[in-house]
Amino acid sequence: MINKIVLSLLIICGTILSQDINLVPYLKDIEAGKADEVRTQIPQIQRDNPGSVNLRFLQAILTENGEEALTRYEQFYIQHPQNAYADAALYRVFSYYYSLGIYNKAQDYLDKLKNEYPRSPYIKAADRNIPDKIETDTPEEKIVYTPPPPPPVQKKERPAPLPPVREEDGKFTVQAGAFLNAGNAGELVNKIEKDGYKCSMYQKNVGGSILNVITVGSLQSKNDGEAILAYLKSRHNLNGRVVEKSN
Length: 247
What we know:
The chain has helices at residues 4-17, 24-31, 35-48, 53-62, 66-79, 86-99, 103-116, 122-125, 182-194, 226-236, and strands at residues 172-179, 199-206, 209-219, 241-244. By secondary structure, it is an alpha+beta fold. A hairpin with a 2-residue loop joins strand 2 (199-206) and strand 3 (209-219). The relative contact order is 0.11.
């Protein structure tokens, strides 16, 4: 479900600025957990308000598929930059990339928000420290899009597995990536495990989208992750990062 703070801002801004169909009642219903009821009303809203721009934003909010929602938000603020909800759509794009750890991309969209909508209340909501290290970025195509099949490569010698560490002893792990596409995530898990590394996958709700997070190894210290990071980079072109294991 969409973040309640963001919904509150949407309701306030929509009340003040919107000249299209009034989305406030629908936003309040979504905030109250009635998103499914709002979805059933979309066909009637479309019939009553053909060509409504605000309706496109409402549909983006109700989109459960993360990739599709991201596309809808991007298209909305690009095609309707003067709409009352354009800055909200731009903020949602920023939030997706920030939550996924694609900090360079997140910074680009935050700059757009500040430069194109300097009075937007979402600037304060987006006020957070963005890490400077580009190595924490995960390749965009690995997360948002389904990448094309890789070209044939020479068979490489399978890397030696790490020394076994009991699961309960490890306080840290390496996050290999966070995928919106569960199929892509599953394929990567299979490849990593075939190479002899212990791999896990769990789901995380980010902004109403379900991410499939892949972790590799169970480490006693952050320094123990260097071998896995090198493996992910050389074998799969992924910039992993060492994180504390989720409870």
